[in-house]
């Protein structure tokens, strides 16, 4: 029988919640091991195609649930490798939300003022910068012009992108091969490696159990590099502290499966899931009307025809992020690029006489792909998602070699959630269809249910043990020494892109994790500066691979 490996801190997942805690704990002197379910890709590994086995299918996890589908990162660096790097801070009113429980969801210790210093740390570390209007690509400019024509405001969004390196190729969802997108591969993770942390890709954690000395044993399987349905060797690692940061679609599944060996989980584990209130509308613009009404011209007689040029979201309308509006009526509207593949499959045909998502009319819609504009809503939902019994392994029953699976999440939108979606749909329609500029249609919920790229809240922090799985230090109730620091800890929808808030909460959680580790005999300190991934840490990545 093989002996069990030992470490001070075992971190499950290498996205924002895992990478940030790994860096600080390793820099403080702890022995840190990170287990990541996905592959380790970077630079030359990022492909500009959608073929099976490319970085596009290797680095994503798309799980279809009952009423909700979740797209998330599945690689070293997690969601930061495939995100659009849009990094706004959550509005102040978000922290006062009551949601479905009828009282403040967030812990009393956290509001915008108390979180701002932790936001500042992440902004420095990545770094996050603003964009000027002359740096905004064509789709962002079109969205801004349409908003202005409709009497709305629009703003360039802050982002973690080095604009001097960005080529506007719009392949950043498959990973940025130019290192323009400041993913965790360029900052926290290389800095953690430089301080001795170890990353193990293709290691899928199945469950946790207790050790005789009061620590935890982490049970994993090795995932096949080509067919994610195939699991190889099993192993275990003992740790004094475990940080679960596998993402809001996987963290609750791991903890639910661990109940048989750890004991009863808090009732909020796997409940109160939020899709960040997300909704998509696809508009098809009339090039002549864009020229005549908005006066836009790319200089060659073409008004727009540039959907595929640029980078992710660059411009947002925040008019409805108004604290004076009732809850569920507040949302942001963001210009978004969604690449071919799932995006074009789900795009709806405006005013279709037949099926809206396939057929002759859909073929005609595809002919005008360059004149599309996708508008992304982030609103306030009702935290109505619930995870059913976990699958035997992993977070989903995989029915494809890579990327695709069916998971245990159930999500039935309430009237509150639909109120925000319907209001935002009407706003989008008013903006883009005004004076015949475009025709717009919401993306369907019929095929894969509602849809989110920003899953949240399935193991949320809070003051009430009945409605929160974690205390305000991110420690799992009833299981001291286990912390959750990913998007599942965020109490509810944020009305903006959540990556910066997830990161700030992870930064805030580190001092408490350090105290808990010291109480368990780990010689670790807190106080490392912002990571420098450009020097020694960057070399550590290359050596580790």
TrEMBL record:
Q: Which Gene3D superfamilies match?
A: FAD/NAD(P)-binding domain
Q: Which UniProt keywords apply?
A: FAD, Flavoprotein, Oxidoreductase
Pfam families tied to this protein: DAO, GMC_oxred_C, GMC_oxred_N
Q: Where is the Glucose-methanol-choline oxidoreductase C-terminal domain?
A: 452-506
Q: Where is the Glucose-methanol-choline oxidoreductase N-terminal domain?
A: 67-271
Q: Where is the FAD dependent oxidoreductase domain?
A: 8-43
What SUPFAM superfamilies does the record tag this protein with? FAD/NAD(P)-binding domain
Provide the family line: Belongs to the GMC oxidoreductase family.
Write the protein's name. GMC family oxidoreductase
């Amino acid at each position: 029988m093989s002996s069990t490996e030992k470490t001070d801190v075992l971190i499950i997942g290498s996205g924002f919640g895992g990478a940030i805690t790994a860096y600080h704990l390793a820099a403080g002197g702890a022995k840190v091991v990170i287990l990541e379910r996905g592959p380790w890709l970077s630079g030359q590994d990022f492909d500009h195609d959608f073929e099976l086995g490319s970085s596009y299918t290797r680095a994503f996890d798309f799980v279809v649930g009952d009423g909700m589908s979740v797209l998330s990162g599945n690689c070293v660096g997690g969601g930061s490798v495939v995100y659009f790097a849009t990094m706004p801070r959550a509005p102040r009113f978000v922290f006062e939300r009551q949601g479905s429980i009828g009282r403040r969801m967030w812990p009393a210790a956290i509001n915008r003022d108390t979180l701002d210093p932790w936001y500042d740390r992440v902004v420095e570390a990545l770094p996050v910068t603003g964009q000027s209007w002359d740096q905004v690509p064509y789709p962002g400019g079109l969205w801004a012009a349409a908003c202005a024509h409709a009497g709305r405001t629009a703003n360039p969004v802050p982002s973690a992108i080095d604009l001097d390196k960005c080529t506007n190729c719009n392949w950043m969802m498959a990973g940025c091969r130019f290192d323009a997108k400041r993913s965790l591969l360029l900052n926290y993770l290389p800095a953690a490696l430089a301080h001795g942390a170890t990353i193990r890709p293709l290691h899928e954690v199945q469950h946790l159990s207790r050790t005789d000395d009061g620590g935890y044993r982490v049970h994993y399987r090795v995932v096949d590099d080509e067919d994610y349905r195939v699991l190889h060797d099993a192993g275990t690692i003992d740790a004094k502290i475990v940080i679960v940061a596998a993402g809001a679609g996987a963290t609750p599944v791991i903890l639910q499966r661990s109940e048989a060996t750890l004991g009863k989980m808090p009732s909020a584990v796997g409940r109160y899931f939020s899709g960040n209130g997300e909704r998509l509308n696809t508009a098809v613009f009339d090039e002549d009307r864009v020229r005549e009404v908005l006066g836009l011209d790319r200089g060659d007689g073409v008004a727009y025809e540039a959907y595929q040029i640029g980078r992710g979201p660059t411009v947002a309308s925040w008019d409805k992020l108004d604290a004076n509006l009732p809850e569920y009526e507040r949302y942001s509207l963001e210009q978004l690029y969604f690449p071919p593949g799932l995006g074009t499959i789900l795009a709806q045909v405006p005013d279709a006489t037949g099926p809206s998502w396939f057929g002759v009319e859909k073929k005609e819609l595809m002919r005008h792909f360059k004149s599309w504009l996708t508008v992304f809503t982030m609103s306030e939902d009702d935290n109505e998602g619930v995870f059913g019994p976990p699958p035997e392994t992993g977070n989903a029953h995989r029915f494809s070699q890579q990327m695709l699976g069916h998971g245990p999440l159930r999500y039935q939108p309430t009237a509150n959630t639909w109120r925000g979606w319907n209001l935002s749909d009407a706003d989008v329609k008013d903006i883009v269809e005004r004076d015949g500029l475009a025709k717009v249609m919401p993306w369907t919920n019929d095929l894969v249910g509602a849809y989110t790229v920003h899953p949240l809240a399935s193991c949320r922090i809070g003051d009430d043990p009945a409605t929160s799985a974690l205390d305000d230090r991110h420690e799992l109730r009833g299981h001291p020494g286990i912390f959750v620091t990913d998007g599942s800890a965020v109490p509810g929808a944020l009305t903006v892109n959540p990556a910066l808030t997830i990161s700030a909460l992870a930064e805030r959680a580190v001092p408490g994790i350090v105290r808990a580790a010291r109480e368990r005999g780990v010689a670790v300190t807190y106080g490392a500066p912002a990571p420098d991934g450009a020097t020694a840490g960057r070399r550590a990545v290359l050596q580790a691979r």
